[in-house]
C-alpha cells in the first residue's frame, strides 16, 4: 500500500521526489559489516550496561563508554552519532543520489 501511495504522490506532485528507505535493511548491513565502518560494538549501547538503559535512564549518574565512536548504539534503543551518520549516508547513497 505504501508503494502505491508513493507512486500516487509522485505523479500528482511532479516537482517532488519520494522514496521509501528501508531503515532495518541498512541497519542490518551496518551490523554485518561493522568493521568496514570502524565500529567495534554493535550488540549493546555505550550508556550504562548498554542493555536496558535508554533516554532518561542515561543521565549524568550513568557511566558511559570511553569512546562512543566505536559503538553503533548510544543506549539500548538509540543509535550513537556515528551510527546515525552511517545510516543517513547509506540511505542517501542508495535512495536519493541515484
UniProtKB/TrEMBL annotation:
It comes from the Eukaryota. This is Uncharacterized protein.
Amino acid at each position: 500500500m505504501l508503494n502505491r501511495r508513493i507512486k500516487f504522490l509522485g505523479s500528482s506532485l511532479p516537482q517532488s521526489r519520494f522514496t521509501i528507505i528501508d531503515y532495518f535493511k541498512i541497519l542490518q548491513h551496518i551490523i554485518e559489516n561493522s568493521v568496514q565502518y570502524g565500529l567495534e560494538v554493535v550488540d549493546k549501547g555505550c550508556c550504562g550496561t548498554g542493555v536496558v538503559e535508554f533516554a532518561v535512564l542515561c543521565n549524568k549518574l550513568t557511566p558511559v563508554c570511553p569512546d562512543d565512536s566505536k559503538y553503533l548504539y548510544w543506549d539500548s534503543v538509540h543509535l550513537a552519532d556515528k551510527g546515525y551518520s552511517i545510516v543517513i549516508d547509506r540511505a542517501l547513497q542508495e535512495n536519493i543520489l541515484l
